[in-house]
Amino acid sequence: MAEAQNSPKPSTSLGQGGPPSVGSSTTAGSIAVAAESTVATRMSAPPSFDVADFPVPHGREEEWRFTPLERLRGLHDGTAVAEGGIRVEVTAPAGVTQETVGRDDARVGKAGKPVDRVAAQAFSSFEKASVVSVPKETVLTEPIRIAVHGEGGTAFAHQVIELGAFAEALVVIDHTGDAVLAANVDFVVGDGAKLTVVSVQDWDDKAVHVAQHNALIGRDATFKSVVVTFGGDLVRLHPRVTYAGTGGEAELFGLYVTDAGQHQEHRLLVDHTTPHCKSNVVYKGALQGDNAHAVWIGDVLIEAAAEGTDTYEMNRNLVLTDGARVDSVPNLEIETGEIVGAGHASATGRFDDEQLFYLQSRGIPEDEARRLVVRGFFAELVQQIGLPDVEERLIAKIEEELEATVA
């Protein structure tokens, strides 16, 4: 673990040249440091809505070096053609409005610009964006549910979810079926508002899903994201957080179970540009099977103006079988010494045989003991969801995924 507390020197970057154990790349139990020295300057092009501003990636770029480009089905080089491959259904409580708008609507892209070629391609290619709005001071007692179902084709999409000042809402975005999908999702959280978003990737085995999630957090507002990834051939998600006013708080939680042959990649950026804001990142993953590959990149940037920042990020990975690989890279860049606290941690390890032995010594069969240990590993993240039906479904899915390991 690497930590920085009230560093006296501005522009401090904790990466490969910083304290030990900041990142790891794991194959069959071996661990090596794999961290970069900066956060802000590692992208190959600045953010832009224009796909022409981004070169076609070749896999050598920092933001693409872990991604198997040949499995993106042309999303990265412009050869993918939209075929209407998804069906979207929105179920919302009374008082919530839903609109279909063009990209010239002022709310589209307000939360952030695309930061790579696929996100820019998605922005340039979608036909209509969906905007879901919660009026100011509206407190929803039922969740907004957005079902995205793949129907076998290629699609580009844009979703906007906006909360007015002092509104409160919980949104569940559920991805199922088979599709090749590139999308941008914007979350605009008004002053004093509270938004919880649960994004579930439960795709069929051949699906490809690449998405950028942009959250713009208002003054004294709270944003909580829970990302859950199970299915798909390749899933690459890029959650990003920026602050529009002081006192904003962001919590980013993630859970992923990576099976044989799957590539699951989560790349996060929390950009502290505003004073006296908080962020907390916790992602956990379990891997099993040959060529299961999980990538977690956690970037936190504390800019010079962001005095009073309090931030922490952590990634934990549990390798259940041989043949699985984890790349875990936390990055923390600090440009001011006037902070409350900042730290990051990453750890990857095998199944704990001592825990297994303890449970078996109490009369619990080995397969059940393994399930209990993995369920305990994920429990704190599942509990962040706050919806019993979704929590129960995810626990059942974890159990289903583990069947292959204990069989």
Automatic annotation (TrEMBL):
Similarity remark: Belongs to the iron-sulfur cluster assembly SufBD family.
Disordered, as annotated region: 1-29
Domain SUF system FeS cluster assembly SufBD core: residue ranges: 150-377
Source taxon at top rank: Bacteria
Comp. bias regions, Polar residues: 1-14
Pfam families linked: SUFBD_core
Name the record gives this protein: Fe-S cluster assembly protein SufD
Organism: Streptomyces flavofungini
InterPro entries for the chain: Fe-S_cluster_assembly_SufBD, SUF_FeS_clus_asmbl_SufBD_core, SUF_FeS_clus_asmbl_SufBD_sf, SUF_FeS_clus_asmbl_SufD
